[in-house]
Amino acid sequence: MFPGVDGFHWTFGHVVFLGLFFAVALTIFTTVVRAVWRSVEDFRSRRATAICWDLEFAGMPEAERCCRHELAGRVAERTCPNSFDCRRCAEYEKFAALPASSPATSFGLDYPAGRLYHRGHTWVRPESDGTYTIGLDDLASHLVGKPDSVELPEPGAAIDANGTAWTLRKGRNEVRVRAPIDGTVVETGGADRGWYLRVRPEGEPNLRHLLQGPEVTAWLSKELERLQIQLGAPDAAPSLADGGILMDGLMDAMPQADWDNALASTFLE
Amino acid sequence: MASYAVADRRWIERGVERTSTLRFALWLVPWALLLALGVYAAGLCLRFGLNQTNMDNRFPFGLWIFLDLSIIALGAGAFFTGFLVYILKFKELKAVLNTAVVVGFICYSGAVGILMIDVGQPLRAWFTFWHPNTHSMLTEVTFCITCYLVVLLFEYIPVLLRNRQLRRVPSFLIFEHRLHLLVPVLAAVGTLLSFFHQGSLGGLYGVLRGRPFAFREGIAIWPSTFFLFILSAIAAGPSFLLLITSLVEKVTGRKLVEFSVLCRLGRISGLLTAVYVAAKAVDTLAWLNRTSPSLGFAPWEFYSYKPFGTWLMLAEIVLFGLVPAVLLLHPKTASRRGWLISAALLVCGGILLNRFILTVQTLALPTLAFDEFVSYLPSWQEVASFGAVVAYGVIVYSLSYRYLPLFPQEKREGYRVSGR
Predict the structure, then answer these.
(1) pLDDT below 50 — which residues of chain A?
(2) Looking at beta carbons, which residues of chain B come within 8 Å of A66?
(3) Looking at the partner chain, which of A34, A52, A265 has a beta carbon nearest the beta carbon of B173?
(4) What is the pLDDT of residue B314?
(5) Pick from B62, B158, B84: nearest CA to B385
(6) What is the pLDDT of residue A236?
(7) In sequence order, what are the residues at sequence separation of 6 or more whose Cβ sits closer than 8 angstroms to the Cβ of residue B224?
(8) Residue A17 contacts B, CB cutoff 8 Å
(9) pLDDT of residue B417
(10) Helix (H, G, I), strand (E, B), or coil: what is residue A195?
(11) Does the beta carbon of A146 lie under 8 angstroms from any beta carbon of chain B?
């Protein structure tokens, strides 16, 4: 194989054969090393979370990638091409200027107007000291009820929008709650305190990707409809109960339901 | 059991339906038993040597080499589909690319596994790399197959890392993404390697001057069998992929790809089979009228030993070559599932027959005046090892189908149920 090793000959055929073999082996090796190197670079430059989210978003069903402007009735049908990141949407201004139509009710759920909402069912509230409080929205809280355990990041840890903010465990289910904004965690809360994280973003954050106003109830309506289908009996026709509000601790009340699928859709897995 | 089922469900892709954990486990049991028996038989061969087989110095190639040649040819769908998708931009074949990679990986790893038993002293297998005889076709085969198995491994890893739970690990997901972006490079390397090792496997027989039944003339250092093996492998690869996909659709009762994708695979296979049959016919005529007589043998003598009569040659070229080529190319038959699958079966059967003839018939025929026609029947250890490779393939494919996104369209179909 190498000069000096028994069987090696300085002949044209031998050198060409081994030269080709080493070229191929080197190409394979370089390709894999390049993939590893680029992966390391992605983590170093903090692009990893955004890439992961883009990949996971691309794998989500089309029905769950519905544009906020479709939810708000501004366009008939539109699938989001920007991984729910309206900050990089070139058409945002055009659609946002159109009148929105949305249900007048919030279905008995508490969605205060002063908060902004992420599609992964978290809310964000700006505080006077420049920090932002993050919590689980009312629909998600009604579903999960009291979690068995919560794994929060340590103060000082950095979170990236659409990356994992914290983890909830309920029964056999583990839920990754997505961060609605970038920032550094300054304080942690919990289910009992009504909020989970307080973060300080670097500079003034652009919150255009978060839902607000009439978009929220329209999105909520769509989410409740999806849950009805996912949690209903497999052979039952979709039906909407008239009146009534979502009970608290739905996971405890319906232990046999397909929570694996429902939680994945709710928390954008 | 319920908790196992819940845990198992979490590893299965969202939006796709899979059979229950219990049924899946029951499906795997017989294959696992067959695999265990084969591993035991292989252990006997490694422990006590090749005297556990019915091969000897007169008949050194048997069931295992037939298996190697066959599965390497059928596994050609992996490199050829990669070549069609990444190099020639046949976008619609992306629907079967993942399954092609898995099938290719199974075929090549199975072939290398059986070769490790077949070489007799696997601890010395590295000699072929360290002290290569570059004049041997087998050296080229060894180098290319080893390199290509590594390529297939790195093509399989992105599919593996797309598993629902594995992709929750950010570093896995990022590496999968980065490796996936570089897969066209691996596909190009795989194409180069596959052309050479498929060809060299055929060349191996074509250079056997002492076996005039197999010996062929050719171009430069390559006998005609070099080119025929490449052609037959790329003709059979898409047909095998078509068969596997149809079989999985039948077993699971789910639509996995559009029928047009199967038709496209059929057309590609039909076209290449037609070219192969034409080349094979010319090669056979040249051998009958020139090569064999020039070596001092009347070619028809080779067909006087039962059961290897001329019917075998005609069956290989007409029944398993011309007929499926016509069926796959004729618009009426090529657009009907039944005909399509039957034709693909014939193409794959033709490959198996061709590799059987070149391996078994070649060695069975006498070539010297004092030589006799030799019969060979594999020992149970050989058959069990053969079965183990089949069982290994079924198990790996079943696990891959259950837990990995082999057919992207299946997920879209599943979601349509609750779509907007």
Answers:
(1) none
(2) 420
(3) A52
(4) 93
(5) B62
(6) 64
(7) B206, B216, B217, B218, B279, B283, B286
(8) yes
(9) 40
(10) strand
(11) no
pLDDT in tens, B383-405: 999 999 999 999 999 999 999 99
Burial A196-220 (b: 16+ CB within 10 A, else e): bbbbebeeebebebbbeebbbbbbb
Contacts of B133 (CB under 8 A, 6+ apart): A7, B139
- Residues in A touching B15 (Cβ below 8 Å): 61
Please provide the distance, in angstroms rounded to a whole number, between the alpha carbons at the two ends of chain B: 35
User: How many C-alpha atoms does A53 have within 13 Å on its Cβ side?
Assistant: 26
Domain of B262: which CATH number? 1.20.1630.10
Quote the pLDDT of residue A19: 93
Please state, in angstroms and rounded to a whole number, the distance separating the CA atoms of residues B151 and B144. 10
Q: Please check whether residue B45 lies inside any domain of the structure.
A: no
Q: Does B151 touch chain A (CB under 8 A)?
A: yes
Pick the closest to residue A72 from A192, A172, A215, A199 (CA basis). A215
**Phi, psi dihedral angles at A176 (to 5 degrees):** -95, 120
Number of domains observed in the structure of chain B: 1
Burial classification of residue A134, based on how many CB atoms lie within 10 Å of its CB (0-12 exposed, 13-18 middle, 19 or more buried):
buried
> Which of B165, B174, B186 is the best substitution to test chain A (most A C-beta atoms within 10 A)?
B174
Q: Does the model's ipTM exceed the 0.95 cut?
A: no
Residue B343 domain boundaries: 55-376
Is B49 within the bounds of a domain? no
Q: How far is B221 from chain A (nearest CA, A)?
A: 11
Does a structural domain hold residue B321? yes
Q: What's the pLDDT score for residue A234?
A: 66
* Residue A52 near residue A160 (C-beta atoms within 8 A): no
Instruction: Give the 3-state secondary structure percentages of chain B, helix then strand then coil, rounded to 5.
Output: 75, 0, 25
Domain contains B315: yes
Which three-class secondary structure state does DSSP give residue B165? coil
The CA distances from residue A147 to A175, A176, B59, B304, B376, in Å, are 10, 13, 69, 80, 68
Q: Which of B66, B345, B76 is nearest to B237 (CA)?
A: B76
Contact A28 B150 (CB under 8 A): yes
What is the spatial distance between Cα B206 and Cα B198, in angstroms, rounded to a whole number?
13
In this structure, what are the phi and psi dihedrals at residue B269, rounded to the nearest 5 degrees?
A: -65, -40
Distance from CA of B83 to the nearest CA of A (A): 16
> Are B218 and B226 in contact, with CB atoms under 8 Å apart?
yes
Nearest to B170 among A21, A27, A52 (CB): A52
CATH class assigned to A106-266 = mainly beta
Strands B218-219 and A122-126, by their bridges, are unpaired
Burial (Cβ within 10 Å: 0-12, 13-18, ≥19) of residue B194:
buried
pLDDT at B5: 80
Which of A27, A39, A269 is facing B174, going by the closest CB pair?
A39
Which residues of chain B, if any, have pLDDT below 70? 1-2, 412-420
B177 contact residues in A (CB cutoff 8 A): 51, 55
State residue A235's pLDDT score: 65
Structure tokens at B189: 């390397």
Residue A104 makes CB contacts below 8 A (sequence gap 6+) with: A217
Contact A231, A262 (CB under 8 A): yes
Distance from CA of B18 to the nearest CA of A (A): 14
Interface contact flag, A35 B179, Cβ < 8 Å: yes
